[in-house]
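Section 5.1 Outputs to date
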Amino acid sequence: MVYSHRLFVLTAAVALSAVALANDPDKSMTQGEDSPAVQKLKESLPSSSGFKVDSVRQGSDGVSCINYRVDSDMGNETKAHAVVDGDKVLRSTSRSRDFEKAWNTKCVAANK
């Protein structure tokens, strides 16, 4: 009897925690493929052939973190990341320190 009571309490606690995390306003918001940030990214690409969005997250500061794919010149699919802050688009394929810094501070650190 005690075991089933503990199992019920544990299940209820997990369910309440999930609800609390889902409603946490500090967590990043998910956007769709038709968001302005995705459109900015798509406009900045040299070629949007095979463009697909895997995920988009917008932080409370309005910065969007995007995981996406495009077809390369060789016909292979390339996975990439982008940080969109207003009109500024930084892409992982540019191999810039600005992208690396923005991704680590705005996207990686924001999810911890």
